Amino acid sequence: MKKKKFRGYIFSREFMGERVPQNVQNLFIRDFCNKKNFQYLLSATEYAMESSSMVLAQAINDLKKIDGIVAYSVFQLPSKKQKRIEYLQKIINLKKTFYGALEDLKVSNNKDLEQIEEIWDIKNNLQFCPKNISENLKTKKYEEKN
Which residues pair with 40 in a beta bridge? Predict the structure, then answer.
């Protein structure tokens, strides 16, 4: 059986507060592809300019002869929701697949897209959650149990 071909997609800049060296991203994607029995095609590296997704857009436009894209992380997708959904919807419409290797998540249909959007919403809202439990709350819960 012929192996499915996937183009890697990596960043040269920080994403969601993380910075991972390009060689580490490539090693991770290559290992991910090997485990899935995919043929790994050399990664496309996004431009370093803030919020750039030009290389990803080009990789999506070049999907005709391959099966999809494997990014190091789903958080390397555009941070703007509208653009992110537009790109993923285009991949779905082309009947191709997008993977986030770090999270082992894929997008090949609208249900997958909804799951990715839920994860993005959670990640974006974590900054508004309490970082620790106040002493008053800890004491109150202890008193309620006893």
Answer: 6
In Å, how far are 36, 58, 68, 97 from 55, measured between CA atoms?
Answer: 24, 5, 14, 17
Residue 33 half-sphere exposure, CB side, CA atoms within 13 Å? Answer: 27
DSSP string, 117-146: HHHHHHHHHGGGS-SS--HHHHHHHHHHH-
Residue pair 40/67 in contact (Cβ under 8 Å)? The answer is no
**pLDDT one-digit tens code per residue, 29-84:** 999 999 999 999 999 999 988 889 999 999 999 999 999 999 999 999 999 999 99
Tokens of residue 71, six digits = 């990014």
What's the total number of domains in the chain?
1
Structure-block tokens of residue 98:
């997008």
Domain around 61: 5-145
Find the CATH number of the domain harbouring 102.
3.40.50.1390
> CA 78, CA 54: separation in Å to the nearest integer?
10
